[in-house]
Amino acid sequence: MKKILLILVLSVVLLAGCSSKVDIPIESNEISIKNFQFTPSFITVKTGTTITWTNEDSALHTVTSEGNFDSGTLNTGERFTYTFTQAGNFDYICKIHPSMKGKIIVEN
Question: CATH number for the domain including 90?
């Protein structure tokens, strides 16, 4: 029992010390736009899921997936929703700040 507890404690300490960013696919339908980032930046959902992006930044942003969807310019506090009706991988950016990137994986 003590060995298991020690392993768990060491794992938590090691994980807490990691500074690299890791995107973990999660099931969610809310994405915030804050600090010039989409959070979470990578999610996995089922077909038929509606995603809502909310601009929580003081800057203007877009949510744009070329050929799929485009929010237009979002002011602070504005929201954009999109329902994914087909499976696939949907990369998106902010057209105003193209270094902001996100990805939605839609599964059946």
Answer: 2.60.40.420
